[in-house]
Amino acid sequence: MASPGYGKQSAPGELPRAADDFGHLPAREAYLASLISHLPDGAAMDVKTLAAINPLFGQMAVRTALSNLSTAGHLRRVRERVNADRPQWVFRTYFSRTPRSDAWWNHFISTGEELQAPEASTDSAPDPPEERRTVVSPAYAALAGLGLTDARLPLSAADCAALEPLAAEWFARGATPALFTAALTAGLPPDGIHSPAAFTRRRLLDKLPPERPLPQQQATRIAECTDCRTPCRPHALLGGLCRTCRGTPAAAPPHRHLSPAAVRAHAARARRAVITSARS
Q1: Quick one: 216 exposed, middle or buried, by C-beta within 10 A (0-12, 13-18, 19+)?
Q2: Contact 66, 44 (CB under 8 A)
Q3: What is the pLDDT of residue 74?
Q4: Which domain holds residue 186?
Q5: 180 — phi, psi (to 5°)?
Q6: Could you tell me which of 33, 97, 187, 222 has the fewest CB atoms within 10 Å of its CB?
Q7: In a shared domain, residues 12 and 105
């Protein structure tokens, strides 16, 4: 077993066990995957330990098999923060009997939740009109309530629907219904308002609250290359492997073509340097 908090972690949403769980893998990878599948959560997943409990393969063979299992979608190595209050990081290997795509792993590493497949709708017909519920947004409700707070701002249903996007921006910037109502009803003209909708639209634009900076969120998980353990962004790993371990060559630098005049100038400078060196 690894130290508490480290080691193997079972990925969520696995299918029930079956005899052919790893039938699509080569014999060595299938044997190692079956062994890892039966290990409890928290078991050590380093190459040295797996080779010690598995006498059939050495450390190099286990390392290669783990990389192949990662490429097949069965595991990912992750550095994970213990919690928001402690800066301690643990090293975990998430294993799934069910092979997962890169998109599934990327979503899981980023959010901690499994990627749900879209479900087909089973409704054969829409709900009857009498069973439908009218759901209004907080922005629409706040606009509709202005006329109740001050009779000089009566808005119709069409007015509320037209102004709803502007009001929604207020709530997106942190405004509460009480602050929204107070800002739009404060200091109204005593003689009445000729066009409540136009007046409300003008105030929604002129008194729009400033955007609040979002708090900087620290990453809670960092993906690692399964082979070399280099930290990478999840989307930079294909099959859990970085570019170097995949053997993908880096882009060659652009070839610089020199003109004949530039070549002659370089040759002249080289000759002058040789002559100067010989004289000295």
Answers
A1: exposed
A2: no
A3: 93
A4: 135-206
A5: -60, -50
A6: 187
A7: yes
Q: Which residues pair with 93 in a beta bridge?
A: 8, 77
First to last CA, the chain: 72
Q: What pLDDT score does 133 carry?
A: 44
Name residues of the chain where pLDDT drops below 50: 118-122, 124-125, 127, 129-133, 250
Q: What is the pTM of this model?
A: 0.53
Residue 225 · residue 245 · CB < 8 Å: yes
In a domain, residue 171? The reply is: yes
The pair phi, psi for residue 6, each rounded to 5°, is: -105, 180
Say what the pLDDT of residue 199 is: 93
In a domain, 142, yes or no: yes
User: Which of 148, 181, 206 marks a domain boundary?
Assistant: 206
